[in-house]
Amino acid sequence: MRRLQVYTSLWAMQPHDQTGVKLPYDQVCDMVAGAGFDGMAIDLGASDVEVAHAVRPHMERNNLTPLIVAFPKTVESLEDTLKMAKDFGAPFVDVIGQVMPIALDDMVPVIETWMEMSDKIGMPIQFETHRNCITNDLYTMLQLLDRIPDMRVCADLSHYVVDREFWYPLSDHDLGLISRVLDRSDSFQGRVASRQQIQLPLDFPQHQKWVELFKTWWREGMTSWRDRNAKGDCIFLCELGPPEYAMTGPDGKELSNRWEESLKIKGWVEDIWSELGGNE
User: Fold this and answer.
1) Which InterPro entries match (predicted)?
2) Taking the model in full, what pTM does it have?
């Protein structure tokens, strides 16, 4: 059976809205599970291993699957994270590699070493499309995908929209570049960006062209995933980060309610999945 599994992020829940209040982990997990999310990502860039262990029992009590997001600063340091993720029962580790050689020829052995580590430990990895890491640039990422056929991707396309400063509407050429990434993506992340802003409030009228573009990409990505997978879980992570990811006004308060927006994205992707054939 193919299933859609929708996650949110602990980072996005600390705080989860404009009040700025950071709820304790037990309330966070109750809230996330009560809204029907299947899991929650633990971002080791925004927190640490101690936090991961502290939130774990509350996730287990609510039957929330943990997803570990790693920011390894050395090639060797990913190994401990992979072992921890396996113990936690994570479906994979989302790698945002902080080892960032300048030359492509120097990047390839870093990626390949991490993939070998993954195979040895038995914990799958995906490389997130993310700024300020080894996959920082779309063009370099496409070259990595060409050089390493088994490299799998977690698609957070918001980073590449900002990275390339794509004009709207995107050209057929640029849309084709994104399609190449989606065809190698095994999971997806939910955030809407514009060419100058990483995370847009979803309801503003001037943002609707970008909202529709990202919905189109999520549909394309999930369609590609279904074409490549006769069974398994397609994981979609709603990851709406707090300030300074979230836009704020002159008072420093957020311009939208990220919790409500995460539920809106969750509903969108569930509708898309259902239209594509649903769980079957």
Assistant:
1) Xyl_isomerase-like_sf
2) 0.98
Is 102 exposed, middle or buried, given 0-12, 13-18 or 19+ CB atoms closer than 10 A? exposed
Residue 228 tokens read as: 């490549």
Show the tokens assigned to 36: 């029907």
Q: Which of 118, 190, 111, 120 is nearest to 149 (CA)?
A: 111
Cis (ω within 30 of 0) for the bond into 79? no
Residues β-bridged to residue 125 = 93
| Domain coordinates in residue numbering, the chain | 2-275
Superfamily per CATH, domain 2-275: Divalent-metal-dependent TIM barrel enzymes (3.20.20.150)
pLDDT for 169-218, tens place per residue?
A: 999 999 999 999 999 999 999 999 999 999 999 999 999 999 999 999 99
Q: Quick check: 85 and 68 in contact, CB under 8 A?
A: yes
Contacts of 264 (CB under 8 A, 6+ apart): 202
